[in-house]
Amino acid sequence: MIEQRPVSNLIGHLILILGIIIVAFPIYYTFVASSMTSTQIIRPPISLLPGDHLVENYREAIFGGVERVVGVSLERLLWNSFVVAMAIAVGKIIISFMSAFGSCSFAFRCACSSSG
């Protein structure tokens, strides 16, 4: 039976909580930054509390703000991302099939085989 040690449980939980904070903080920071104006983001002490421009920023990004800044619509950017992701996925599948075929079809000589 496994012993329950309160000190080791506490240390383990603290390490897990620290890991969760390290992983989740950049996501939270990005969300907070997306709710601020660009001048609020540029000022050095950025707030860790969400701003009051979240709806306006998302509305502008989805419905034409990206086109005004970059010159390309959001639909075009999403389509390009989809095409690149599909090309990479298909390429990886093809390479995996060729590797599997090579591993199964060819007899490899191994110096460490036990059969002699």
Automatic annotation (TrEMBL):
Q: Which InterPro entries would you find in this protein's record?
A: MetI-like_sf
* Lineage top rank: taxon: Bacteria
Q: Does the keyword Magnesium apply?
A: no
Entry keyword set: Cell inner membrane, Cell membrane, Membrane, Transmembrane, Transmembrane helix, Transport
What is any one of the record's Gene Ontology cellular component terms? plasma membrane
Q: How does it sit in the membrane?
A: Multi-pass membrane protein
Q: Where in the cell is it found?
A: Cell inner membrane; Cell membrane
Main subcellular location: membrane
Q: Does the keyword Zinc apply?
A: no
Q: Which Gene3D superfamilies match?
A: MetI-like (1.10.3720.10)
Bilayer-crossing regions: 7-29, 82-108
Q: What does the record give as the function of this protein?
A: Part of the ABC transporter complex UgpBAEC involved in sn-glycerol-3-phosphate (G3P) import. Probably responsible for the translocation of the substrate across the membrane.
Assembly and binders = The complex is composed of two ATP-binding proteins (UgpC), two transmembrane proteins (UgpA and UgpE) and a solute-binding protein (UgpB).
- State the family named in the UniProt similarity comment for this chain: Belongs to the binding-protein-dependent transport system permease family.
Name this protein carries in UniProt: sn-glycerol-3-phosphate transport system permease protein UgpE
Question: Which species is this record about?
Answer: Brucella melitensis biotype 1 (strain ATCC 23456 / CCUG 17765 / NCTC 10094 / 16M)
| Lineage, broadest ranks | Bacteria, Pseudomonadati, Pseudomonadota, Alphaproteobacteria, Hyphomicrobiales
Gene that encodes the chain: ugpE
